[in-house]
Amino acid sequence: MDNFLALRRSIERLLSIQCANYKEDYIKRRILSRMRLTGTRDFDEYHTLLLSSQKEQEQLRNTLTINVTKFSRDAEVFEIIRKEILPELMRRKNRIRIWSAGCATGEEPYTLALIAHDLTRLRPDVQVTILATDLDREALEKAKAGIYHEKSLENLEPGQVRRHFTLRKDGKYEVKSHLRERVRFQVHDLMSGRPISNFIDIILCRNVTIYFTETQKNDLAVMFHAALLHDGYYIMGKTEFLGREVETLFVPYNSLQKIYRKGLRSSPGSAATGAANRERTRTYPNRS
Ligand SMILES: C[S@@+](CC[C@H](N)C(=O)[O-])C[C@H]1O[C@@H](n2cnc3c(N)ncnc32)[C@H](O)[C@@H]1O
Fold first, then answer.
1. Which of 64, 88, 111 is the last residue of a domain?
2. What is the reported pLDDT for 285?
3. Whose CA is nearest to atom 5 of ligand 1?
4. Does 69 map to a domain?
5. Residue 139 alpha carbon, nearest atom of ligand 1
6. Ligand 1: which of 208, 210, 211, 215 to mutate, most ligand atoms within 8 Å of CB?
7. Which of 37, 89, 214, 281 is the most buried (most CB within 10 A)?
8. Of 64, 87, 108, which closes a domain?
9. Which residue range forms the structural domain that includes residue 10?
10. Can you give 130-160 as a three-state secondary structure string?
């Protein structure tokens, strides 16, 4: 058997990562980067190391699912959420659910929590819940711990830092309990085809799909469309695009900031037929 294929099989078995879900080139590049760092010379040697070292298994998992993030990353998007999107939703409903999909170490959902906290201080009748999911368990553990270096808070106003964080003796910042209470973290694979809920007002899925194939990105957009309530918002990363096959599902709200809405015109029809059909014919072993 080809050396790379054998290694790939071990990655699937040991790390529970479906390699078929990623481009082969991407997986090879990430493995080569681990080989350089561990001083292993070929796939065989790296494979032997991976089988014997749990630490290396964790390292490779992190390398394959890189989770770089910070508070208020792309601050303009959060300004639009604060000034336009949440006020619009608060005018017409008092239970708002946000899904931060691919939340990494928690900075994105906590940013949403602090905005929601500030906006609902004078509207205690409004409840904003944030569902935050990721594939990477280690990243989610960090998210739940809620302890951050000063550097990751640099896009926040000093007043926001004072109100929402406690400065610890070790110089790190810990999110206060009123933020923790709003966020529910959960392991979830965006390639499973199943949404975390079907009653979502805002989905943020930013900087997650860069390594997905076009088909996987389209399937994801169809899944998000189904999970969103009518008139809900879908926010992508600045460098991400809605594929041709699915663009008619959403109406642009702010094209520059990659914010879309599920609108009246957007039923899964003609242009999205391929992706929508794949979604309809997908088998869900655990679905009742
Ligand atoms: C660069 S971070 C993005 C964090 C945040 N959304 C942001 O924009 O700052 C990408 C995250 O996507 C997660 N991810 C990658 N593939 C995933 C999948 N199939 N399901 C769920 N999360 C995934 C990674 O684990 C990683 O934490």
1. 64
2. 39
3. 103
4. no
5. 27
6. 208
7. 89
8. 64
9. 3-64
10. EEEEECCHHHHHHHHHCEECHHHHCCCCHHH
